[in-house]
Design a protein that fits this description.
hydrolase activity, GH_1_N_CS, TIM Barrel, 15 helices, 41% helix, 3-stranded mixed beta sheet, alpha/beta, 8-stranded parallel β-barrel, GH, binds 6-O-phosphono-beta-D-glucopyranose, 15 strands, single chain
Length: 468
């Protein structure tokens, strides 16, 4: 069938280690920041101990991926499964597990697409160095990346160093800032961590290119498309700045090897300039990404947020959707409907994002996350998730339009292949094409049940695009 999607388009699906694997301390795995945070919420929702139990079911799960027709599977490896304390001894059992997963994928004709770090920093690095605040963590990450390239690089060609580094630094819990309450100190730490993550990204990109001929590696960003709340010029500027701070300052650093001017100005004025030695520049500038990966869920609005006596320039409020005095304040778009969990549903925003990223960087784009979190209901062994089919269809159509606009796209991977542990809502909020039979507090039989969206997406892959 002729569609606009290229012949070798990577139709796939995504997941991440701590959200599906379980076996949180089995076979030598160390504790991670993701484990630590999930255990604090064990009384209100599921934690990482069992999750979807992919660790013990990976063969059957990959068979299901094959049945779906997936061309690629985007997943993450757990740093602490491979190097339990993040920087010391290598755990052969961890390497063996991922070897088995990768081999099984290849046997099933599925291209492995690996993220090295998806929110699960080994906790030992937090205790020792306060995680990403220290350059020791940067070098530990470089070594971990090299261990992965060495062991899996003969079979894995597609890599992402970090998942959503531009989002990680916004959330105190993810970057392990637990006790600090002074907003200036938090912003200072955040700025240093952001820079260190950029450096770690660059070191991994360079090592990947040196160690794996023909490899492709790129950044996975949590995308941001911001509409001005009104047509007032100051609100238009605020919307641009919101995108700049939320996504482009990171992508520009990955692409050009330096932060853009407006971000440097903010660091100066807020007096939180990170330590960025001159010699890093060579590493940063050498690291050329091969593609950009976008995780796209929603869009927002922004308006100007003037400073006042109590709120000086640069003061932040909020976490993921933070505002900055003197720059922007975010809000929901009154013109869009939201999911039951409050995310604005906006397929045409995806077309905007794809065009913007393509025009800015001219790098091929893959979507490594896009999906609808919903409270699915299992009825007589079936899940009728038409709302998810509608969501995916509309977003795939937006990709089609973007391709017609001239955007080069590599692939599309909805979030997620199977139900998994959602950060704030555990197993109540499900994203999968495959239902996992458990609740937050009852593991039940963990049976895998194909949802209606599974059968629908199978046709999309077969036809290389949406035909109905
Ligand atoms: C993305 C993350 O930002 O959002 C995933 O990469 C996450 O790990 C997804 O699961 C959905 O967010 P949530 O909070 O609903 O799980």
């Amino acid at each position: 069938m002729n569609t606009v999607f290229p012949k070798k388009f990577l139709w796939g699906a995504s997941s991440s280690a701590f959200q599906i694997e379980g076996a949180w301390d089995e076979d030598g795995k160390g504790m991670t920041v993701a484990d630590y945070n999930s255990f604090k919420k064990s009384n209100i929702q599921a934690d990482t101990k069992v999750a979807s139990d992919f660790y013990h079911n990976y063969e059957k799960d990959i068979e299901l991926m094959k049945e779906l027709g997936m061309k690629t599977y985007r997943f993450s490896v757990s740093w602490a499964r491979i190097i339990p304390d993040g920087e010391g001894e290598i755990n052969q059992k961890g390497i063996e597990f991922y070897n088995k997963v990768i081999d099984k994928l290849i046997e099933c004709g599925i291209e492995p697409f690996v993220t090295l770090y998806h929110f699960d920093l080994p906790f030992a690095l937090v205790e020792k160095y306060n995680g990403w605040e220290s350059r020791e963590t940067v070098y530990a990450f470089e070594r971990f990346a090299k261990v992965c390239f060495e062991n899996f690089g003969d079979r894995v060609k597609y890599w992402q160093p970090h998942n959503e580094h531009n989002l990680i630094v916004r959330v105190e819990e993810r970057i392990n800032i637990y006790d600090e309450t002074d907003p200036w100190k938090i912003d200072k730490m955040r700025a240093q961590m952001d820079y260190n993550l950029c450096l770690a990204h660059a070191l991994a990109v360079n090592a990947c290119h040196e160690m794996i001929p023909g490899s492709q590696i790129g950044a996975a960003v949590s995308s941001s498309v911001t509409y001005p709340l009104t047509s007032k010029p100051e609100d238009v500027f605020a919307a641009r700045m919101n995108d700049n701070f939320k996504v482009y300052s990171t992508l520009d650093m990955h692409y050009h090897g330096e932060y853009p001017g407006y971000y440097m100005e903010y660091l100066k004025k807020r007096d939180i300039m990170p330590y960025m030695p001159e010699e890093d520049k060579e590493v940063l500038k050498k690291a050329k990404m091969d593609f950009i990966a976008i995780n796209y869920y929603r869009t927002n609005c922004a308006e100007a947020l003037p400073v006042d006596e109590e709120h000086p320039f640069g003061l932040r409020e909020g976490t993921v959707d933070y505002s900055i005095y003197g720059l922007f304040r975010m809000s929901m778009n009154p013109n869009l409907k939201a999911s039951e969990y409050g995310a604005a549903i906006d397929p045409s925003g995806l077309r905007v994002a794809l065009n913007e990223y393509w025009q800015r960087y001219h790098l091929p784009i893959i979507i490594t996350e896009n999906g609808l979190g919903a409270h699915d209901v299992l009825e007589e062994g079936q899940v009728h998730d038409n709302y998810r089919i509608d969501y995916l269809r509309d977003h795939i159509n937006a990709c089609e339009l973007a391709i017609q606009d001239g955007v080069e796209m590599l692939g599309y991977c909805p979030w997620s292949f199977m139900d998994l542990l959602s950060s704030a809502q555990g197993f109540k909020k499900r994203y999968g094409l495959v239902y996992v039979n458990r609740t937050d507090h009852e593991e039940l039989d963990l049976e895998r049940i194909k949802k209606d969206s599974f059968y629908w997406y199978k046709e999309v892959i077969k036809n290389n695009g949406v035909t109905k």
